[in-house]
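Write out the 3D structure for:
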Amino acid sequence: MRGKKSPSLISPTGAIKLMTHAMMGAALGLVFGLALVLFNPTVANLLSHGGHSAATVFIITLVTTFAIGATLTGLVFILAEDKEF
């Protein structure tokens, strides 16, 4: 009979796994933003006319959205991994 193992989210390893997923999401958000600016001239034109604040809001929005999504997805993966026998 197996002993009860502790949930991995509460351990330091679980926190590191979640931070890793958040960093991967932030990197994907930056890459997506760069690709969007390079391949869509309308977005590049809007950002050039919007000034520094428009570019800052654009990047922060993309990075935050992707980071939150990747963190939640990582949370689901970690919880599903804990339920496997």
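The longest helix spans residues 41-83.
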